[in-house]
Amino acid sequence: MDRIIEDVLGAVECQDWPRLKALLHPYLHWAEPGTAIRGRTKVIARLAAGPVPAAPASYELRDGQIYRWTAQP
Questions:
Q1: Domain of 56?
Q2: Nearest Cα to 47, choosing from 30, 60, 22?
């Protein structure tokens, strides 16, 4: 697993929202089965509600931050 994915999942698990915010792009595209969310604030709210997501099937970086996260089906 790539380091940035480990960092994101670790931040969510520890509920370290400031650290997570630094890892996620402001215009983040987040896709899970049956759900698509756009924007870092909305994604952090979803992650705060739980559960911790699994590693993504694919992801894209922009400016060193997660820009697109596509969950495994």
A1: 3-70
A2: 30
Total domains, the chain = 1
Give the whole-angstrom CA distance, residue 22 versus residue 31: 19
The whole-angstrom separation of Cα 33 and Cα 23 is 22
- In CATH, what number is assigned to the domain containing residue 22? 3.10.450.50
Q: How many angstroms separate the CA atoms of 33 and 31, rounded? A: 7
Is pTM beyond 0.70 here? yes
pLDDT digits (tens, 9 = 90+) for 45-63: 999 998 999 999 999 999 9
